[in-house]
Amino acid sequence: MCMATKTLTITEQAYGLLSENKLEEESFSEVIVRVITPKKRRTLLDYFGILTLEEGELLFEDLEKIRAMNLKTLQKRFS
How many CB atoms lie within 10 A of CB 48? Predict the structure, then answer.
């Protein structure tokens, strides 16, 4: 696919910001598109794989502890 190109003049500061935000193997055009594109609403699928299995299990254990503490607090409050 052939894309049209444009030459832009930017300040050193703007170049520095682009360079700081550039990911490895990413072109400056890709940086601009990624940074400027409005953020879309994320779905649960967007977060798939963000945690390792071990991290997920630890998080689940912490949530279970929090639920147990909340249940005890509610039982005391309504007893």
Answer: 8
